[in-house]
Amino acid sequence: MTRSTRHTSSIPTTTTSSPGTITRRSFALGAAALAAGLTTGLSGCGGDSGSAGGKVTLHLWDTDTRPERTANLKQLIAMFEKANPGITIKYLGLPSDQYMQKISTAIATRATPDLLTPKASDIAALVAQNALEPLDERFQAGGFADQISTAMTDSSKAAAPDGALYLTPATSLADVIYYRADWFAAEGLKEPTTWDDFHAAATTLNNPAKGRFGYTLRGGNGFFSQFVEMVYPRAGVETFFTEAGVSTLNDPAIVAATQEYVAMFGKQTAASDLTADFKTMVAQFGAGGAAMLSHSIGSYPTLTQQLGSDAVKAVVPFPAANGQNILTGRMTTGFAMFRASKNKEAAWKFLAYTMGQEGNSFWAQKSGYLPGNKAVAAEAWVPKNQPMQAALAAEKLPTAAVLEQPFYLPEFSAITTTALLPEWQRVLQGKLQVPEFLSAAAAKLTEAQATYAKAPK
Amino acid sequence: MSATLLPAAPTGAARRRVLRASYPYLLIAPAALITLVFLIYPVGSVFWYSLQHSNILRPLDDGFAGLDNFRRMFTDEKFWDSLRFSIKWVVVEVSLQFVFGLCLALLINRTFVGRGLVRSLVFSPWAVSGILTTTTWILLYNPSTGVGKYLADAGIGSYGTSLLANPDTTFWAVVLAEMWKGIPFFAILILADLQSVPLDLYEAAEVDGAGTFQKFLSITWPHIRRAVVIATLLRAVWEFNNVDLLYTLTAGGPAGATTTLPLYVAQTAIHDRDFGYGSALTVAAFIVLTLASLIYLRFNHEKGDEQ
Fold first, then answer.
1. What is the ipTM metric for this complex?
2. Is the separation of the CB atoms in B246 and B85 below 8 Å?
3. Which of A223, A274, A409, A429 is the mutation pick for testing B, counting most B CBs within 10 A?
4. Mind telling me how many Å the CA of A336 is from chain B's nearest CA?
5. Which has fewest Cβ within 10 Å: A146, A156, A202, A239?
6. Closest Cβ–Cβ partner in A11, A275, A289 for B160
7. How would you classify the pairing of strands A50-52 and A55-62?
8. Which residue has the higher pLDDT, A308 or A12?
9. What is the pTM of this model?
10. Quick one: closest CA in B to A430, which residue?
């Protein structure tokens, strides 16, 4: 399958001549001091990674700063430092909604750190700025091609416009539908296995008078992820573009699935879901305000902490009418190295550590992400993480097909957020019809794909 | 003979004169340099980029654009929608903040028990950082944990609703949040001016039989008018450029209903990384603000002259 279808001032302080005059020497000294001060100040803005006395200090910028995740990442860093006594990693958490601004500024001012935790959807923008170091050679030389899931490696490469490996396939997300197992049991409902089960449960468990809704629908920022999770598997469409490079967003099956999904808004969902983003949605589910939630497996540790592991279960999106199991949200969540790093070998050691068994096992287990290391995927703790087990089991189905989102398109993020979000909210309000919305969205993506196909790689 | 035609070498006195003449310029040089680096250069670069195609996601398409970005603006509905919303936002916010700020200032200018405490409470929202203000209002409006949930628990309203998520109430919800922060600004400035009004003017007016409203119109208002003009102008500029509160509370939604022009600039330049078009939008905002400020000042200058 081809990519195109798949996816000082100068005031004298000491004078030797008459008062009020400036000597050439004092002026030069003042200017030099000012320049030095400015230079020092500016250089202090970026990281000062380097090596001294055999010790290497690396700087890592993290783009996902949820408290529990940060604690786990710091623990991972501590484990790495213990295994590599000559290397120290300084952690810096960036605001989750503004990190790309900070990174772009750092790239422009040549003040990038050594390491980053980008999302697959960020890779196109970072590669366009020539900011990341390709990892293909080191990956091969380190023997990771055999140790790491091929599907995850391919997915990571697919996120880059030039098809190179920039993001280590350390772990991956996967979409699941969480449900309140305790509410299901109380109503005598079995675990949903079909779309009909899902809709029946959403209706049965919907009780607005008690502040309980059947489902929480993401109408706000980031809506596209949940939209894809609920619509493509329902429609049984496994690619974003046809062989001819035309977007499948206005495929009749996608239109029908979207209409069914939109019909839930305001009936089995809260009216406030119109603007619900990730935090609002997860908070609503965690506070007992919704029976079901579509999100990635990475939310499981947080949800079980809030509700207990017996109350929260997860299933993968259900098979389509054509029998296909479309797997969504398989987005690599690894680490990357900046091209401008002065300590690439030390930085690579950290990247390798996160893919090796010890580091990968810890990180996948604590974060709740699918492990990229094949040996880790076979460890005893994996089956105990119910959503992870469900996601791994789904991969083995003969009818399974992974839907790759076209993160390699530079405009993908702009289209699916800035451009489509207001239109999506108009659809939910009934001010725009689903076919019109999807046709306009498809046209934008088709145009972006055509531009990408013509551009030199 | 020829030697007399050569310019005389500068004497020590002449050199001192030159240095003395240049001394003021050297004194202001640091400030001029800072202004140049941190104001003139950035503003100039925005004008320059507005004439460029500059998108870091499409570096191969970058180059001189001429007026393309401005032509695009004229056919961009989002630009016109955001400009219309910006004007509505500024007019409503500044008017309400001024009216409530004036009322508060008149109230706390009176003498009563606990006046110091009341003044502190009135001014406290202005001292709270912007991020704390928005976080507080986000929590208040949250459908799962906010006021709406507790009202629903008490049988008032419905669960699963939020003022920010209802297109009919979003505007007034964000107006309320911004007013909470902005009213103290007017109250502080007006109160400072109220305290400079000579009390004997009021006493004389009372002797002449003037009522409260007449005293306000004939004494108070002329004294505070100039401060009000400056305060409203400053506040209008700040409100026009407001990004943090709107971005955090609504991100310009729902369905673009609360997108101001600066917020649209932020979406275009920061999120979509289209710096060329984002710069052109910024230039448009700069021109709109400059013209509006000049007209407002001219209008008030003429009114002041008449009075």
1. 0.81
2. no
3. A274
4. 19
5. A146
6. A289
7. antiparallel
8. A308
9. 0.83
10. B255
